[in-house]
Amino acid sequence: MNPSCFQETVKDGTQKSGVESGNQQRDTTPAEHVTCDKPSTDRENQRETTPSRSSLDPAPAPETTSPSLAQSEPVTACPDKPDTKSGLVDSDDVEGTLSKNSKDTVSTSQEDEEEEEFEDASEHLEDEAKETKDPEASVTLSKGISKGEDTPEETVPEEHRETSDPGRVKARDVRSRSVTLCWERPVSMEGVSYMIHIMYSCGGEEPRSEIISPETTTAVLSDLRPGMEYTFNITTVLPNNSCSRASTARVRTKTILDELVCELGLEQHLKNKLTLSTVLEVDGETLTDESIQSLKSLPWCFLRRLMMVNVTARSVRCATKPDRESQSMDSFLDMLKSPQGNSNKVNPLDLLTAVFLCSDGFLQQEMVLKMSMCQFSVPLLLPKGDAQQCTLVLWAMRDIVKRFRPHYLTDPRGFVEGSIVLTDLPLVSFVRLGSSSLSKSQILNQVLSNPQQYHDTFVHKNMVCGDTPRRISNGLVEISWYLPCGNRNIDIFSEPVAIANLRGDLSDFQTQYSFLCHTSAAVFVFCDDFGTECNLLDFQHSQAHLFLVSNLQSRSFNKDDFRRRVSEFQLQHSNIIMKGPQMNDSAFVNKLRLAITDLLKGNLSKMSVEQMSVVAQAFRIPVDEDYVSCQRGKQMADAITARISEIPEYKEKVLPLQGTTWKQLAKLEKEEYRLKNAGEKNIEMYKSKLSEQKQKLREQQRAHGISEPMSCFISAMSGSTEERAYFLKWMRINLDNLSRKKLSTLREKYKEECQNYSENKPHIAELDQQISSCSLGAEHFLREMGQLYESACLLPEGHTSRKQMQHLPRLCAELLLEGFPLELVDGDASTIPLQWVTQVLKELHHLTQYKIRVVTVLGVQSTGKSTLLNTMFGVQFAVSSGRCTRGAFMLLIRVKEDFKRELGCDCIMVIDTEGLKSPELAQLDDSYEHDNELATLVVGLSDITVINIAMENYTEMKDILQIVVHAFLRMKEVGRKPCCQFVHQNMPDISAHDTNLRDRNLLLGHLNEMTQAAAKMEKRGNNRKFTDIMAYDPEKNNWYIPGLWHGTPPMAPVNAGYSESVNLFKRSVIEMFKEHKSGKNPPHTFSEFIEWTRSLWEAVKYENFIFSFRNSLVADAYAKLCTEFNKWEWAFRKNVYSWLMQAETKVSNFSTVAAQTQPSFNVADLLSRLKSEATLELAKGEKLILDNLTEYYERQEGHVHLVERYKEEFVNTAKSVRRETENSIKNKIEAAVEIKKGMFRLESIKKNHTATMEQKVLKLIERCRESKIPLSDQQLEDEFGKMWDETLKELYFSGLDRRDIVQDIYLQLRANLGREGGLVHEMVSGVVNLVECGKEPFKVQSKANTFYKKVWSKLFGDEQKVKTQEMADHIIEQCRQFVDEKVRARSDYHNTYMIDLLHIVDEILERHRNLETSTHFEASLKIHICGHAAREFHQMHLDFIRANDPRQCLEQFKGQYCADFKDLFYERDQCQKKAKEFTFHCLAPAVREYVTKSLGPDLVDEMLTGKKAIDFSTRSFFQFSILKQLLTDDNFENFMRYVGQYEAFVQDWIFKQMVQQFSKEDGGLRNMENKHLKDICSNLCKELVIPKDALEAVFTLNTAKPEEFSQCLMLFVDEMEESFAAKFHTGGDVRAKLDMLPFKPQKELFNRVIGCGRQCPFCSAPCEAGGQSHTEHFTSIHRPEGIGRVMHLSSRKLLTAVCSSSVASEYRFRSSETEGKFYPYKDYQSIYRDWLIQPDTSIQASDYWKYVFARFNEEFSKEYEAEPADLPSVWKSITQKQAMESLEESFKMKKQEEE
């Protein structure tokens, strides 16, 4: 570029300063330069270019300047603060760091955003340059001289060095009308005066230029055209006019639309459209009500309010808080005048248009529906940004359905209902030509509003931000409708009419205007200036009436022009609406109304919105429904719905599986659970028959096959996600339109017939049924899919039809994820297709692994439940046209990603239910039961249950509260504690909450009354107040919400108070979820939700919910609690046993240790100390268990809240275990101390004898040595013998005193039976010699001394006698084992032994108290047992006295004394000998005893932690293990022992398991023995009990030196250890080892798994409840009563009844407890209060025992001397595999294995 290039751009030789006043307008002809106060360098070029030094001070002016530069004012930069008026933009954040001389920086608030915009613009232009192959089309540097030319720097002339070109150019902050350019400072220009010249242009424009000061490297270039590509050339200009090479950048400005959506933060959604599910996501903004701080929050706030149908949705704006206190008046006024005052404002129409353009079709549809409910105008023609194109919005209006009552209807109560897009209505359009002083939109609002009910249908300038200039919404055509209500005093127009409103000047939007002219019945043109532009009003090809609307007072109004146009258009006076000077707004509006009213009286052309699409296509206006996926979905839906003529017939033909057959199946299923019609039939036979009937019905279903429309439906469902969504929407639209049409006809017929009700009653009933059957929606097709799946699941796994249906659940799972509702409860059949729903939710679990919270609403029908949920969450449930919700539907709402952690879940599931107290169901007998079932189900599934109460009907309110209280009581009893919120609707008063304090108290009183009544009905009388069953605060749990509509529908908008109140309620719900995210009600996974659905539904199908509820989650949580508690209990018992071992060692070693440490410490002190220590140890152990229990219940995982009601039982068990252990320990310590005390005198005698004998031996040695005669060994032995005999004659031998053990036992027996009465006293007194008792086998004698007992004995005596005999034999066996253990211990007798023995008898009798046993039986049994015990204990006492006789004890060491005598005589070294004797006579027995004592607990640990640990973890697992092995062994004798001698069988089974476990060659037992062998050397005194006699013998006559003795001892100890190890290695007889252990591991395991030992009173199945102090007994699997010897009285055939089925039937029973009277099985708890028998009437129930019964029917009958049972054929077909599967299902083992 030569110097003249600069001069060409300056016309008048003047140049404006870059710091002139901000109010001065830019002149685009003379170049205006923009300055900035700091330079910058580009980070990317720092490595390539040496940064130039720069200064903020302007360079000195040269002496010679060009004429243009001489005229310009100097440019300076403020060093203190940036010039805010010059529009300067700093680029330091993008272009690099300041040079070293820079001292000041200027920051902007949008640095990050500008950088992003700059990079986007750069990338855009670079890509564009690549496409066009134009090297200049780049935002980077482009030189005038090719970079390929190699010009060395040293050859560049001086003048060229001074005109260095600007560096790399970048564009940032690219907007629609401005661009900020940044460049690098020219290098090597230090000290040189220069200016920066920018020239820019776009196609079709004259180039423009700017002069920029060298102090800056940025410039803001304004007044650009939107969406145009500009070329910017930047050069360096010297004072001599020489120019550098140009640096070039090409930038495309944003369109106005792009700019606006960028400001709104929606730029990414222009392509990736916003979806409805995204908008409905729950986020943190839901909880805030803070003012909007940025434009990017506007769309989301608008959408949130709109989804909640809030009429203030269009009034969103950014909050501004100017600091007016520090402002001067001038700056304040300047701020008001400044156009920047609108920088944070967006016109509502621009916001609406932008959001619409960024939304997909389904979100647009929902927006339009909500806007229509708010009585907002909705888009008809939507402009596409700043272009002239527009789109007809037809699809988005498809959901709008309106009801209205035109005055032409003959029936004053009739109404018209229809889709607004299909309704033919006259369209009246309002447009503006040129300028108009009248506000068209505001006037329209007044036209459409009553004076008492004004509403802003159209946005106007006096609304919030309505005066903000529109940027993209000009050309928008809005439409609204006026629909009469039928009241002539209220209606403005008697007929419905559509109103269209074109935004902007029609001269700019000819396409839209032409479209309106061809679709409208009339066009009202607002115009004041009737000049040349009026030629655009061409009505030659339009049938619309033209109306001119003008203001006579307008300055631009010209009468002559007006007359000419009126004449030109040949308008009548009636077509001219003029506002005169004396006319106010009311009169003017009334004039407009009259004009429209007159129009409506004529024969106007009418057109539906759907018909308008044809006109739109003629004008080449695209229609939103022309979208490919939408059209495909429509075609698929039309292919199905086009064939529908009569809905009931169509449903019967096309959807046959959900017809009568499905309803019969549902009834059969309930009958299968309740068995109401079984009568006197055999229950199992009746169940088998029901199963066959169900099978036939399923076969009938399968016989129908898949209809062609259903195949088309499944095919469409299997398509792409988008096409499927459109297809389902079209299905809903088409079916709703069809249903409305049919319902309208049926309602008219119904009205006619009702005029003569008595004569037409049958026909009326038929019509009523037709109206009920006339509903058809997409949910019916989805229901049919479910039935197809359930029917196919009954086929074999490899069947083709079954395989074809396997993908259906996944399709519905995907639908749920996409936000579609799915039917949970079939409202027509009143049942849950459980298999279908379960599989859908399983697929959902596999797809997402989400955690969910559940919100449900309950209430009377037609009280706004669905509307409440829709308003809260912005959803629309699938409700067929003309009907309220039937059944229950579930829908998922996602939680925003950044809010999931705070809320504690991923989704919220919303369940909408049918109304309670439905008039349609009220006529049915079981309507109340139906309501109770539904309420129980949804309350059980919910985290929060919303009770919706309409205040108009108090009676209905009481009815629903009664139902709800039942539901909450049931949930409390089964471990669920949902939150309850009462919503009182139609409470308009702002003081409702305060004024209704008394009503809330009354409500609480009613709730308390109903709780008591419900508790009585549910047999849970401990609940007396509503707060007993749930946490309820009248102040926090009650919400008052005003009415929905603000005025009279259909023109009434939604009440703003309603939306705001519902929003507050929604916030409270979300807050509750936040509060409970880590509490006792954690969120569910889908698998957990499945289990709750299954268990709740199965329970409600029984009549008695609480006793029928069975939930695997509860069972699993209970099993985990039992497992943990068992671990704590065993740790407690193990620790106590370890302490007891040490205590017994202390007692045994007392005389030795005490004499050395505390001579004054006696045995009484030892006993006192040990008791104190025991108390402390037990208290410590109990506290540890209780602390563990408390900590366990505070955990968040494991569903601990479900077993909250068992906590007290386990607390009591812990205390009970402590008490029992304390008694046992103290008895054992007292016994040990008493025995030790008796041994003191004996030990003293022995010690004296030993000392005497030692002295005698020493004297003998001395005498023999003095004789000096050599003596042989024989002679020495003879001398020793003489001395021994003489000494024995001298010694006094006094042994232990003999006790009368028999008498002691007799006295204890007498004391034990002393409370039983005179008869027992006589029996005990009659015992002459207790030793003679119990020698003969014990026989149960039946003595019936009353008439009842004689009858009972005759009827049931044999059975009762056999069971009692079995129990007696078991007790006797247990007592014999106890006595044998004590005898094997070779200790002395102590009275506590008999206390323990009689306790065993009492304990077992208590466990079997269901047997008819008398006090006579108890006394006889105890006398028999005590007789045997007396003989054994008496002999044990004699043996102990004999073993501890002083003479005998001395005699047994005679040989050792003789050997010592000879050693001493010969003066032999005794070290080795004494060490060996000490090792093998003293240490070895002590070591053996220690290892034996320590082995027991280790064996228990091994069993509890080894491979079979799960078998002993809980009683349920133990039962499963036994039954599994029984089934595998397939041995009848084993089954008989298990049934008839359960406890004995369990003991043997455990013992066999231990023998099997420790007989393996894995070294388990050997390793334990070796471990304890190595451990004993560390603390001998504490751990070992050394035999006193052997110890005295070893140290008598011991002359060994201590050092040598110690060395020898070490060697012999090693030898002993090797000897023991070798013995342990050989293993030996494991059975004998286990029998000889003092701590019986098998007994500990037995006590652990036997629990309370109680058995089912009907079938004798053992109780599996955890802990010892549980208040309810239960078992997982019951068995046929015939297996337990129950038979029919007359036929003597074994019975097949299973008690779990009987308790759900009408059957009756009698037993000894009922005194022979018959009682209903359902009332069994009135007799057996502590038993819980959960009903299970399924045909698969107890398949395990049914298989066993069928397998061994003959064997059982022979064993019981009865006739074989008549078994159902189904039982005989059960295989062993099915029996095993039934067992696994009963104990939930499959679930455990999966986990």
Strand elements, count:
27
Beta-strand residue fraction: 5-15%
Shape designation: elongated
CATH class of the largest domain: Alpha Beta
Count up the domains: 7
**How large is the radius of gyration?**
50 Å
Low-confidence stretches: 1-161, 1152-1157, 1344-1349, 1790-1795
Features:
1795 residues; alpha/beta; Immunoglobulin-like; Rossmann fold; 7 domains; 8-stranded mixed sheet; 8% strand; disordered C terminus
General description of the model:
- There is one protein chain.
- The chain is an alpha/beta fold and 1795 residues long.
- It folds into seven domains: 164 residues, Immunoglobulins (Immunoglobulin-like); 341 residues, P-loop containing nucleotide triphosphate hydrolases (Rossmann fold), CATH 3.40.50.300; 488 residues, Rossmann fold; 175 residues; 143 residues, no CATH class; 181 residues, no CATH class; 145 residues, no CATH class.
- It has an eight-stranded mixed sheet, sandwiched between helices. Strands 18, 19, 20, 21, 22, 23, 24 and 25 form an eight-stranded mixed sheet that branches. Strands 4-3-6-7 form a four-stranded antiparallel sheet.
- The longest helix is centred in the last third of the chain and has 61 residues.
- The N terminus and C terminus are likely disordered.
- GO terms for molecular function: GTP binding.
- InterPro entries: FN3_dom (IPR003961), FN3_sf (IPR036116), G_VLIG_dom (IPR030383), GVIN1_dom (IPR058641), Ig-like_fold (IPR013783), P-loop_NTPase (IPR027417), URGCP (IPR057365), VLIG_GTPase (IPR052986).
